[in-house]
Write a structure and sequence with these properties.
This protein has 354 residues and is mainly α. The protein has helices at residues 2-19, 21-40, 51-64, 85-114, 122-138, 148-162, 179-214, 218-229, 236-248, 252-262, 269-281, 285-298, 303-315, 319-331, 339-353. Helix content is 72%, strand content 0%. α2 packs across α4 (85-114) and α10 (252-262) runs antiparallel to α11 (269-281).
Amino acid sequence: MLWVNLPMFILIFAGLYFYKADSSSGRLLIYKVAATMLKDNWQVGIGQGQFKVKYNLAQAQYFSKHSIDSKEMLLADNTFYAFNDFYQFVIEHGVMGFVFIITILYFLNKQIKTLHEHEAHKSLFTSAVASLICILVGALFSYPLQMFPIIFQFIFCFALINSFGVTEKNYTVSLNGSKWYRAFILTISILLTIHFWFYFNYKNKSLYAFELSKSGFKTKAISRYKELSNCYIKEGNDLFEYSRELYYSNQLQEAKKMLSIAKKYYSSNEVYKLSASIEAELKNYKQAEGDLKTVINMVPNRMQSRLNMVEFYLEQKDTANARYWANSIINMPVKIISPTTSGIQKRAKEILSE
């Protein structure tokens, strides 16, 4: 049956690929860069939750060894998920992660195939199975299992399927299960509920701090971000926003300290752009230069990043490197021409003509 349907599956996947070719090619780039992470850490993985910390740095490393003016660079962007939850789980946990996935899928398949559910509970069982299948299929191409509400739904459906008891003789259904099993599920449910409550409360405070910042209440925003930074929940983006507010308030050492903490939970070209600005003002020019190169290699299609490098070298009176990056701006491929990109190219031409 599998071999009969294989050509149809190939045609479906090919059609999906060419339907949004740029999006599909972008994901292939993510898979390729992520493979370098897996290659170096296949035994034990890079650590739980570390994909969003290390992927963009791996992408910067990749483009430091490949052309930043290739067609491939147009596909690059800040990326925090592998767009395949199974792949990301293996990258983060290595061999044991792969074994865990296979074990879960094996027992889930066994439970579904061997259970003969009672008619009264058939709809409930079928709904739980269908929900799990939808989540698992989606996990092949996106990141549903990175979302707390979907994780909660996944655990609930999985527990529900496994709560149906099976007897060896007549396959009767029981939603009772053992007392220990019920106690375990109840404990996990309570802990998850408590965590979700803290998490949503944290997100509300984070949104309020962000709104204070955008409204110009910088001192209040810093106070709110400081409160959030002491919470057991650590969101890299909030730590980054806190660092940026400290930088704009000219608290450079505090901004640098907080940004170093943010880098443990979050990585993007904006993080390293801020790091470069802080280091330059602290007169750590070598570190600032390295951060600016990381910004360019992390997302090479950002023309503004190259202009920032030009301006940095001009400030350092390094004309040769400034002209090199000005030429890079003129010659780089542009995905979408806009007034902004035209203005940057005009500025680069002015520098080259001086």
